[in-house]
């Protein structure tokens, strides 16, 4: 059976320090360090963590509220930065 990262093309945002991938159908958000090259010059994915939105949706109201506040804070900081740059 194919894994979600093999079946779905994610929305990808890359910075100098992170690679974020959102797999909307699977409900997964991954955040990784940038890719690196091994001794044979083969590109490898950086260390990655995956946030399971499906598991979040099964959480308590308090946990859902805390997650909403966390993501809202992140969005607020991004919005403030965009406002400064425009």
Summarize the structure.
With 86 residues, the protein is of the alpha+beta class.
Describe this structure in words.
By secondary structure, the protein is an alpha+beta fold. It has a single domain (4-85), classed as Transcriptional Co-activator pc4, Chain A. It has three helices and six strands.
User: What general outline do the C-alpha atoms trace?
Assistant: globular
The average pLDDT is 96
CA radius of gyration is: 16 Å
Name of the level-1 CATH class: Mainly Beta
Query: Order of helices and strands, N to C?
Result: HEEEEEEHH
Helicity level? 25-40%
State the strand order across the main sheet. Answer: 1-2-3-6
- The count of strands amounts to 6
Number of domain units:
1
Segments where pLDDT lies below 50 for 5+ residues? none
Which structural category do the helix and sheet elements fall into? Answer: alpha+beta
User: How far do the termini sit from each other?
Assistant: 46 Å
* Strand coverage percent: 25-35%
Number of helices: 3
CATH architectural label: Roll
According to CATH, the fold-level topology is Transcriptional Co-activator pc4, Chain A
Largest sheet: 4 strands, antiparallel
Give the SSE layout:
Layout: H1 4-7, E1 11-14, E2 19-23, E3 28-32, E4 36-37, E5 43-44, E6 48-52, H2 53-57, H3 61-85
Can you tag this structure with a few keywords?
single chain; 86 residues; alpha+beta; Transcriptional Co-activator pc4, Chain A; four-stranded antiparallel β-sheet; two-stranded antiparallel ribbon; 6 strands
